[in-house]
Amino acid sequence: MIKRIIHVLTILFLILGCKKTDNNTKIYKAGVGMNIRAEDTNGDGKKDTWGYYLNDPGNYRIVYLEIDKNSDGTSDDLIWTGLHPASPKGRAEKEIVKVHEEEDTDNDGVIDTLYWMLPNKIISLSQVDTNKDGYFETTNYFNFENQIVRVEKDTNFDGKADQYFWSMRVEVDTNYDGKPDMFATADTKKELEEFANNKEKLKPLDKDSSWFLNPSKVPQHEKAIIGSGYF
After folding, report:
1. Terminal Cα-to-Cα distance of the chain (whole angstroms)
2. Which segments of the chain belong to CATH 2.40.128?
């Protein structure tokens, strides 16, 4: 999927570099025209990608993409883009990068995963609606290698996480006050989830021993970009 998005961005960037426009233009209050260009990226004769770009002399850049991944007529991937903070060596213009993405991962017509991006194709976090109820109760935190290293779940849907998972550790907020008070360790993700959901084999956790409340206690290989004291 990432390769396809890069391919789409490259095609649209080349199009914009030619400074072409079409008749599908919207003018916004700021006075800048927004053009929409449709492309058939997989060669099946159907338009599957729509790029929205600024029609502003000297600032032709993509700001939003919609992609129909399975050619069913519904957009499954919604992408917001920005500009890389640094210009590539030897080029005046800055690289177009993703900053936010909304995806329908199982092609059922409903967005179920949200991504927040950093430059260099790094994902900082994603939110997932696992049970398709419209509420994104699971948040995945990534490291700089685009690996999920911490997962937080809001099981009572009060807007705050109450389960905090690492690879071999879970901390649980049993009284829902925003601070984990019990914990367990295990060798597998399945065991950790069972302990947390069934409140089994949990041990008391004091504030000073909590990884969530004390990010410095998290082992380096388990540290996420967000919430580990990097920023």
Report:
1. 30
2. 1-120
Residue 18 is classified by DSSP as: T
Domain 1-120 classification at class level = mainly beta
Evaluate the CA torsion angle 197, 202, 163, 225 in order and state its sign.
Answer: negative
The number of residues making up the chain comes to 231
Quick: pLDDT tens for 50-90: 887 776 666 566 787 888 988 888 887 788 777 666 666 66
Cα–Cα dist 38/132, whole Å: 30
**By the 8 A CB rule, do 5 and 67 touch?**
yes
Can you tell me the distance from the alpha carbon of 204 to that of 214, in angstroms, rounded to the nearest whole number? 16
Distance between CA atoms of 137 and 130, rounded to whole angstroms?
A: 7
pTM: 0.71
